[in-house]
Design goal:
About 35% of the residues are buried. The chain has four helices and five strands. The chain starts with a strand and ends with a helix. By secondary structure, the protein is of the alpha+beta class.
Amino acid sequence: MKALTANRLIDGEVVFWREGQWVERFADAQLFDDDAAAQEAEAHGKNQPTVVIDAYLIDLVDADGIWAPLSYRERIRALGPTNHQHHGKQAEGGEVVEALLHASGAARSSGRVNLIKRK
């Protein structure tokens, strides 16, 4: 399972792809179990250079029945700043935020690795 992420240019906010639009919450992200559909969305996201930067796919892992990013880096990006749990997106709470906080896995997302190799 994968999700598409990027940073919005106007304010640097971490955003996620959902059916042709960028949304701010990981809970609202479109999840892909089909590689072809995921790559098509990634190509579409990369063709929006005035809207987002560095669009790439992230790998997901099942965390207590809810999908969460596999890599620690991507979980931090989805939650917001790590300085305090009452800041950022994690302050909203909910079962998706709890899954993100308790998910495990330290591998880098393959999409991020590919992005690093291209630079």
